[in-house]
DNA sequence: TAGATTGTTAATCGATTAACAATC
DNA sequence: TAGATTGTTAATCGATTAACAATC
């Protein structure tokens, strides 16, 4: 099993390759991916080598082959159905996020405890939490997104795992974890901003001390 | 200058410590942070040691001291004012995201090219992009969030850097980079989900092959 | 052929972990 | 004192990079 950073690089390669393909390119050199994917050419070749993807010396790699191989590794055969639990502002924004389609992701349903929010009209139904387990079983859902409040996050995770979810992207501002085999990816938006603030301050300081 | 993962750990420590403090705790042991922050106790002690934060053998660390030191390192003296460029669904959701306040972050304005979206009413004004440079100068803004479309992202970044922005959190699904000293943090939501999908598939496969 | 690019090995780099002496 | 916890060093681990032979 490969690591997170490696997989994120593969996803970037895939996006760039699809763009190049749509522009009519047939072949690509490691160097062409360097800028667009933000990696070194050593790393591109190493990554492909690890996946047993072979290019031609002097001829580069065939884009179609690369895309196919990457899709196999990334497990992107069929459309990936995903649910969202917590239909607040961020949850609703993600339900309508139109970049998912291009990546083979489809948000198929939302879930919420608030009866006011429920609806079966519209493209994506919003259902009560009680329906979660049934829906997941009926539709063979593996992955869900948590966009509930900090206080509800832990119990929401528990309910999702209980209902059979195997992978979770958590946007609630609290680090979730589990003893079960469920994969959890915590994204803390505030921390991402604070992280930037730190580096902005740090570079300012080094500049000032360089001047002095 | 410290690295990204280190800073993210410090941010997690800070959140946990503030919670403990609000519960009335005065002291904390490295072990208390292990579960909540998702790190090893070795790492907690190592991290504090690197920051020259000293505890008492057998007595642990004083929570107040830790919080203060962390705030110094993280550069969190005053409220951090942040702008958002791109007032679509995700941008608007972030403008109203109420967890920022607790972290000392305030979204002070939105910017958009669409005249329909502009408003000076409401808590947070939405202004035309032409006002960006002036606003940033007048209000001493350093950090901005990009929530425009993929196609507009690169030119939006350019405009922001031009206007004096020093740090950017980018949610547009394209990797932004710059020759300038501006810090850029790319968050690709689709990739985060695809990353989970990979690991869910991978663990399923290893389980099946274990059975066979 | 000459030159460009791959594929792979070894070197480097850095972060995490383990271990344990110091000491409260 | 005995026991628990820190602080730090050294060992480990793993990922990235550099270098270069192979070869198209």
Blueprint of the fold:
Two copies of one chain form a homodimer.
Chain A: H1 4-22, E1 27-28, H2 30-37, H3 41-50, E2 61-62, H4 63-74, E3 80-85, H5 89-95, E4 105-112, E5 126-128, H6 132-139, E6 143-146, H7 150-162, E7 167-170, E8 183-186, H8 189-211
Parallel strand pairs in A: 3-4, 3-6, 4-5, 6-7, 7-8
Antiparallel strand pairs in A: 1-2
The structure holds a DNA duplex (24 and 24 nucleotides).
Question: What does this protein look like?
Answer:
The structure is a homodimer of 212-residue chains. In chain A, helix 1 (4-22) packs antiparallel against helix 4 and helix 2 (30-37) crosses helix 3. In chain A, strand 6, helix 7 (150-162) and strand 7 (167-170) form a beta-alpha-beta unit. Chain A has helices at residues 4-22, 30-37, 41-50, 63-74, 89-95, 132-139, 150-162, 189-211; strands spanning 27-28, 61-62, 80-85, 105-112, 126-128, 143-146, 167-170, 183-186. A six-stranded parallel beta sheet of chain A has the order 5-4-3-6-7-8, with helices on both faces. Chain A has 212 residues and is of the alpha/beta class. The first copy, chain A, has eight helices and eight strands. The termini of chain A are far apart. Helices cover 47% and strands 16% of the residues of chain A. The interface between A and B is large, with 66 and 65 residues. Chain A binds a DNA duplex (24 and 24 nucleotides) through helix 3.
